[in-house]
Amino acid sequence: MHVLNEAPTLPVTVDDKVHEMPAAHAATVAAAKAPWTKPALPTSGDPVVDMREAIRAKLAYVVGKTPATARERDWFAATALALRDRIVDACMASDQSVPNKRVYYLSLEFLIGRLLSDAMNNLGLVETTRAALADLGIDLGTVEGAEPDAALGNGGLGRLAACFMESMASIGLPAVGYGIRYDHGLFRQSFEDGWQREAPETWLAEGNPWEFVRPEATYAIGFGGHVTMAMVSEGVIRRSWHPAETIRAVAHDVPVVGWRGRNVNTLRLWKAEADAPVDLARFNGGDHVGAVASRVRAEAISRVLYPSDSSTDGQELRLRQEYFFTSASLQDLVRRHVTERGDVRSLHHHAAIQLNDTHPAIAVPELMRILLEDHGLLWEDAWHVTTNTLNYTNHTLLPEALETWPVELMERLLPRHMQIIYLINWMHLEEQGRHGRHDAAHLASVSLIDESHGRRVRMGHLAFHGSRRVNGVSALHTDLMRSTVFRDLHALDPDKIVNKTNGITFRRWLHNANPALTRLAVEAVGEGVLDDPGKLRGLDAFAEDPAFVARYAGMRRGRKEALAAIITERTGIAVDPAALFDVQIKRIHEYKRQLLNIVETVALYQAIKAEPHKDWTPRVKIFGGKAAPSYTQAKLIIKLAADVARAVNDDPEVADRLKVVFLPNYSVSLAEAIIPAADLSEQISTAGMEASGTGNMKLALNGALTVGTLDGANIEIRDHVGAENIFIFGLDAAGVQARIAEPNYPRDAILASPRLAAALDMIASGRFSPEEPNRFRPLTDDLRHRDQYLLTVDFEDYWRAQREIDVAWRNPAGWWAKAIRNTARMAWFSSDRAMREYADEIWRVRLT
C-alpha cells in the first residue's frame, strides 16, 4: 500500500515576491535571474565624506533626530543603517544566478552578538566609519558600545552557528540560516547578594536596524486537531491533518556579510504571530483580556529562549517552539526550491539541510508530511528525498541532553507527525527482522520509541535515522558517539557517522576581538594572514624573538588593563593587571566543573593563609556564565563562587595574591573583552562529556594557555599546539568510565587528599556562609557520596597542574613563547576549514 496525498497549489517565493504555482515557471525563474541595477546614489569620490553624509541622512530621515538631540543609541542606529545599505549593495552586486545547491542551517540558537564591528571589518570600512563619525564629533567606540547583544542564543551551540554562518558567507557557500527571533532570548543575569537573578533581555526595545521584515514570507503553523483518512484509489490512501490551532510565522531577515564583502548570506528568523490580533466579538462583549488570549499564546513561542521545562506547560512550549521554527523553515525552503526548479523530487540535489542538535529533529516527519500531503509524493519517494536532504549534528553524549518527548504530548500536539513517526519506526523495526535481528534488547535499543520509563520519542534516534550523515564535533566525541549513545544504530550503518571538529571565525575572534594582536601578526608575517589563517604559523619563528616578545607582552598588558577597568566598573573589585588572569567562561553546568575550580580556589586560599610570607604567584580567578533558571545546583555553585570571592577579596592577609571575580551577564561582547586578556584558559570538564568546546579555541587563538582534561577538542588542540604548550591533567575518557565503575571512589579520593578534605570541610562548615552554615551542604554532600563528574578524583592532579602553571608564569619569556606558539598553531581551528569539510563530505557542495 502506498501513502499518498494530493498536492495543492501553494504560494512560492522568489526574492520574497509571492507567486502562485503552478505558473509560467520559466518566466518566474527568468525574472529572478534578471540582472540587478544599483540605484544611483550621490557620491563625492571621498569614502569618508560619503559615509559621513550617509550617517547624517539616516539620523535625520530614518531615526528622526538631529546631531544635537541624538543619543548614543541613535548614532548606532544611523551608523548601522548606513552600513546596511552597503551590505545590500554587496549582496545585489554579487552573482544573482540561482546556485546549484544551497545549505540550510537550522538552529534554535544563533549567538551573533553585536554586528556593527563584524560588518565594518568584513566590508573593510572600520577606519572609514571611524573617520566619518569623528567628523561628526562622535567616537566609534561609543557607537559600538551602544549596540545591544542580539539575544538569540545562550552558549557554544549558538556561537558555533554564528561562526558557521559567517564562514559560509566568507568562503562563498550559498546558505540560509533559520532560527527564532526571540523577543527576550535567555535572560539578563544580575546578582543579588551573590544569587543569580533573571530578568528579561530587552535587546529589541528600540528595534533592530539590521533586519528586514518580510511579511510576504509568512507561513501557517498548525498544532493539535485530528487526521482524516480517505481512499484515493485502490491501495492508495490520502491522509489530511486538520489542526485545531494555527499561528503565523513571519520572516525577519538579517544579512550575514562575508569577508571583504564578496558574499552575503541570510539569517532568516521567525516571529510568531496570532492569526487575528484580537477577538473583536469578545473584546466588544467586555472580555478585554480574553480577547487577546490567543495572541498571547501564539507570541509566547518566540518570546523566550529555552523556557523552563520543569512543568508540563513548559515542556509543551518548548516542543511548540521547535516545531514552529522547523516547519516554517522547511515550508520556506521547499517553496523556494519549487519556484526555482519546478520539481520537489530534486530537492536533495539542490538543498542540504543541517540540523544543529536535536531541536529541529522534528524536521524528519515534517519534511515527510510536506512531501506527502502538499506535493503528493509516494512514501518511498518522500523517504528517499528526506534521507538524502537532512543531516544531523550531535552536540552531546549526556543522556539528559538528548531530547525525548512524551508520546502523549506528541500525539496531542502533532498527531500527524506521530503517525509518520510510528510508520517510520515500524518499517525500521521490520527491516531488523528481515536481517535476522529479532533480539528484544536490540530492537528496544534501535527503536525510535523508548518504552523503558513511559513511552517517549527519541529525537536523537529520529534525527539519526532520517539523515544522510550524522556528525560529531571533535574526534573524541565522534568516537564516543559510535561506541555509546548511537552504538547499535552505528552498527546498522557504519558509514553514517563522520567527524567534523568545530571551528571559530577568526574575523570575529582575532581581527575584531583583538586588533592589537592582529596588527602584530600582520607586521610579522604579512597581510596575507588576514585572508589565510594558515599563515599564522609564521608567528612560530618569533616566539623567542626578544623584540617581538616585548611587543606581544605590551599588547597583552594593554588588554588586561582594559579588562581590569571593566571588572572594577561592573563588580567594584580592583585587580592587578600584572597578575595571572585565570579565566573560566562558559555555561554553568556540573560537568563543566566550575565547582572544581572553586574548590581549588578554597584550597589555594587555605595554603596562602597557612604560609602568608611565601612568594605566591599572584592570580585573578575570573568566572562568567549563566545557570538555567531551574538548575538549582548550578545556581548554588554561582552563589558559592560569590561567597568565596567575598571572603578572599576582603582578607588583608591574602592581599593581591588571590582575587576572585564573577562577571555578571556573560555575553559575546563581554567575551570579546575577556578573551584577549586571558592568560590561562580553564577547560576542565569531565573527560568524555564535552562534545568539543569552542571557547577553548578562542582563548588559545588569542594566546591563553590551556589547563584542561583530555576532553572534546582539547585533545586536538594539544596535538596542534604541542604538549609542551598546554597543561593537561586528570583521567581520560576511558579512565573516567573505569573509575565510575569502582565503588566508593569519592571517599577514597578524599581520603587520599588532605588538602581536598580540608577545602570541603571549610565549605561545609559555613565559613563562607556564616549566616546560613548549611547553605553549601548539598554541594559538599554530593561530592562526598556521589560525585558524578569525578571532581574528587581529578582534584590532586588539577592542583599539581595549577602549581606547575605558577612556576611557568614566573618565567615571562618562557610563558610568552608558549602563548605565541598557541596563536601560531591554531590556524586549523578556523570555521572556514570546518565549513569546507562539511561542504565536501556532508553537503556535497562544490565550492568555486
UniProtKB/TrEMBL annotation:
Transmembrane segments: none annotated. InterPro entries: Glycg_phsphrylas, Glyco_trans_35, Pyridoxal_P_attach_site. CDD domains: GT35_Glycogen_Phosphorylase. Keywords: Carbohydrate metabolism, Glycosyltransferase, Pyridoxal phosphate, Transferase. Its cofactor is pyridoxal 5'-phosphate. It comes from the Bacteria. Its EC number is 2.4.1.1. It catalyses: [(1->4)-alpha-D-glucosyl](n) + phosphate = [(1->4)-alpha-D-glucosyl](n-1) + alpha-D-glucose 1-phosphate. Phosphorylase is an important allosteric enzyme in carbohydrate metabolism. Enzymes from different sources differ in their regulatory mechanisms and in their natural substrates. However, all known phosphorylases share catalytic and structural properties. Allosteric enzyme that catalyzes the rate-limiting step in glycogen catabolism, the phosphorolytic cleavage of glycogen to produce glucose-1-phosphate, and plays a central role in maintaining cellular and organismal glucose homeostasis. Belongs to the glycogen phosphorylase family. This is Alpha-1,4 glucan phosphorylase. It comes from Methylobacterium trifolii.
